[in-house]
């Protein structure tokens, strides 16, 4: 069975809510990027002072923005999963957040005086979960909407992030040379996913 967006108000609401979540995520990411850049410039480029950024008022604003992104994502994808009768769509959004919360709580309980580096190691695990379930989500969306932009977009983002991580381990100079190109690739990938939702016209149900 195929549900057309012009005939279903719930599908229209789901699309609008998800688009708002994507716009908020883009603005939050830009805010974090420029805020971190300004903080490093203010601190004289000393990376060891980075911990101060995470206790600054700007970090509080970014956390509120991320909370808004979370709420809009959960609302939008829940409604989309409900309309399409496809639980996998909602599960791919909800599970990484739940795993992130559980792992962060366990880390704080086991290592109450954990350093920033130790917490980043924990976050790297949840980051991999976010990547995996993002791929599962957009692969499923490509299947049920017959729009390959979702899958191509997430593959482009994942590939760029993988290369960025590899270059960061090989040397900072490589990141400086190729970082901009990889960031542009991620923006293009995000744009493809955003475009997929903009032109969403129908979705298949089991």
TrEMBL record:
Top-level taxon in the UniProt lineage: Bacteria
Keywords: Membrane, Transmembrane, Transmembrane helix
Transmembrane segments: 18-40, 52-76, 88-110, 116-133, 154-172, 178-198
Full protein name: Uncharacterized protein
Source organism of the structure: Helicobacter bizzozeronii (strain CIII-1)
């Amino acid at each position: 069975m195929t549900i057309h967006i012009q005939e279903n108000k719930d599908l229209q609401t789901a699309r609008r809510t998800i688009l708002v979540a994507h716009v908020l995520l883009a603005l939050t990411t830009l805010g974090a990027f420029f805020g971190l850049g300004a903080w490093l410039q203010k601190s004289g480029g000393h990376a060891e002072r980075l911990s101060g950024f995470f206790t600054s008022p700007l970090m509080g604003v970014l956390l509120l923005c991320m909370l808004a992104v979370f709420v809009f994502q959960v609302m939008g994808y829940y409604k989309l999963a409900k309309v399409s009768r496809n639980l996998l769509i909602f599960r791919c959004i909800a599970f990484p957040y739940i795993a992130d919360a559980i792992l962060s709580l366990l880390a704080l309980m086991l290592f109450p005086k954990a350093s920033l580096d130790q917490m980043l190691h924990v976050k790297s695990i949840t980051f991999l979960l976010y990547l995996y379930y993002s791929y599962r989500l957009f692969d499923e969306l490509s299947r049920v909407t017959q729009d390959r932009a979702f899958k191509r977009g997430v593959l482009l983002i994942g590939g760029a992030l993988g290369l960025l991580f590899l270059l960061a381990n090989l040397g900072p100079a490589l990141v400086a040379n190729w970082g901009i190109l990889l960031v542009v690739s991620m923006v293009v990938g995000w744009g493809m996913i955003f475009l997929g939702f903009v032109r969403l016209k129908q979705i298949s149900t089991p």
